[in-house]
Write a structure and sequence with these properties.
The complex is a heterodimer of chains A (231) and B (244). With 231 residues, chain A is mainly beta. Chain A folds into two domains: 84 residues, Trypsin-like serine proteases (Thrombin, subunit H), CATH 2.40.10.10; 82 residues, Beta Barrel (Thrombin, subunit H), CATH 2.40.10.10. In chain A, 11% of the residues lie in helices and 36% in strands. In chain A, the strands form two sheets. Chain A has a six-stranded antiparallel barrel. In chain A, strands 7-8-9-12-11-10 form a six-stranded antiparallel beta barrel. The mean pLDDT of chain A is 90. Classes of the chains: A mainly beta (231), B mainly alpha (244). The interface between A and B is large, with 38 and 38 residues.
């Protein structure tokens, strides 16, 4: 009997009860995708949503430029984009008109800020420091006053402003820009603002006011004065 | 203890081992044979032992009937019995183990069948989910295409609206310009007409200068020159406006 019991003990145990389902009670989290992290209400990415087209209706003259929001009611552009205007007309990436309230321009750099009546769709984050040579740069603007474009390039260097419109050095990039791109935001690979496009030269190089200059002027309340008008 | 009782076996020829022996009732003897020890030859209480006839104590070998007791079973038979008992035990144990194996196997078979059913159920669900995923992925791709198309169209419409705004602003500027030019031209025309009219009057006065006061005539001349100067200024402004 003892040997029989020992033999029975050595036999495999009966199987455990079969569950009714082996599906996990908690669904596993799906793997994050690159596209999923950039969802927006309408499919446009943040770089496009922050862009603003500026129409400068002067006294017998008409010009266009670009700009970008830095908060819900403020956008940044170039001083020469808003200069000598009788009226400024703003429109967003999706064609909505935004009324401009007041424009102020800086004396020490080709920069200006425009306050808006209606809220702007989105605002980017300013980078903490200027980019390094070789860093990728993306320019979002309205070249030639036409449709919104996104162009890529790299930081080629830093030089003294050839137009003498800015104190300190400005950045040189090979990102393609055209007249009308003035005031476009230059973004790094993380979508942060690293500068403001303000000019280009005959060889196709574009010039950018670095974000350090922009930050310094935005921090100084006295740096901006009402932009000159022609009215 | 055990063993036939009676007179001690007499010396003489021993009983052959293969001779049939009588079964000894009572506790099994450890060692059959001549009684040994103090109790040898003493009958146990309550049991009747055959006794040998008197005077036979010295007789020769005895037969079983002559011995008259329960002889011890031979070792072979007991071995057979023990073997049979062991075999029975082994068979019983094997039966128990077999029953256990059969039961366990049946349970595993049942469990395997249930697992297979569960696996097939989940397999069907997986196949269904995979098909739905493929369909949804296709719809997602189509939706992405539609979204891209819609975004492109939105951008185009925004551009078209901006161009129309530019055109409207430019036309408004042109209209304003034309209005300014027209107003300037009208002013020039009026000023020139006044100038001409004054000069014609002045010419008439000068043809008969003796009839007029020289001082009045000189003041009228100055007025005509001022009006004509205004006309010249208006014309210059018009020319400047046209040159813009």
């Amino acid at each position: 009997m003892a040997s029989a019991l020992a033999a029975c003990a050595a036999l495999p145990a009966p199987p455990p009860p079969v569950p009714t389902s082996v599906v996990p009670s908690t669904a596993p989290a799906p793997a994050a995708t690159e596209a999923g992290s950039q969802l927006s209400p309408d499919g446009f990415d943040a770089a496009q949503r922050m862009a603003v087209r500026i129409r400068n209706i002067g006294c017998g003259a008409l010009s266009t430029g670009s700009g970008f929001a830095i908060d819900e009611h403020t956008l940044v552009t170039n001083r020469h984009v808003v200069a000598d205007s009788a009226e400024l007309e703003l429109s967003t990436y999706d064609g909505r008109d935004v009324a401009a309230e007041a424009a102020s321009s800086a004396a020490l750099a080709d920069l200006a800020v425009v306050r808006t009546v209606e809220p702007l769709p989105a605002a980017p984050v300013l980078a903490d420091a200027d980019p390094a040579i070789g860093d990728a740069v993306t320019v979002v603007g309205y070249p030639l006053g036409r449709r919104l474009t996104v162009t890529d390039g790299r930081i080629m260097g830093a030089v003294t402003d050839p137009l003498h419109a800015n104190l300190g050095e400005v950045l040189v990039t090979d990102a393609p820009v055209e007249p009308g791109s003035s005031g476009s935001a230059a973004l790094d690979s993380s979508g942060r603002v690293i500068g403001v496009v303000y000019a280009k030269n005959a060889t196709g190089m574009s010039f950018v006011v670095p974000v350090s200059t922009l930050r310094a002027l935005l921090a100084d309340a006295a740096a901006f004065a009402p932009a000159p008008t022609c009215g | 203890m055990t063993g036939p009782s009676g007179p001690a076996p007499s010396p003489g020829p021993q009983q052959p081992p293969h001779e049939p022996v009588w079964w000894t009732p009572g506790p099994r003897a450890a060692a059959p044979g001549p009684a040994a020890g103090p109790s040898a030859g003493r009958p146990e209480p309550g049991r009747t032992w055959p006794t040998a006839p008197a005077g036979d104590a010295t007789s020769g070998p005895t037969t079983p009937s002559a011995a008259g007791g329960w002889p011890a079973p031979p070792p072979r038979r007991r071995a057979v019995v023990a073997l049979a008992l062991a075999l029975v035990g082994v068979l019983v144990a094997a039966g128990l183990v077999g029953a256990r194996l059969w039961t366990t196997t049946r349970e595993w078979e049942r469990a395997a069948a249930e697992w297979e059913t569960l696996a097939r159920t989940h397999g069907e669900q997986l196949a269904q989910a995979t098909a739905e995923l493929e369909a949804t992925t296709g719809e997602l791709a189509a939706t992405r295409d539609q979204l891209s198309t819609a975004q492109t169209r939105i951008t185009e419409l925004a551009d078209e609206k901006a161009q129309l705004g530019d055109t409207t602003a430019a036309q408004q500027q042109l209209a304003d310009y034309q209005a300014r030019v027209s107003e300037a031209a009208g002013t020039v025309a009026t000023a020139l007409a006044n100038c001409i009219e004054g000069q014609e009057s002045l010419i008439g006065y000068l043809e008969d200068v003796s009839r007029y006061d020289p001082a009045e005539l000189a003041r009228f001349r100055a007025d005509v020159e001022r009006v004509c100067g205004n006309a010249s200024d208006a014309n210059a402004a018009l020319q400047r406006e046209l040159a813009r």
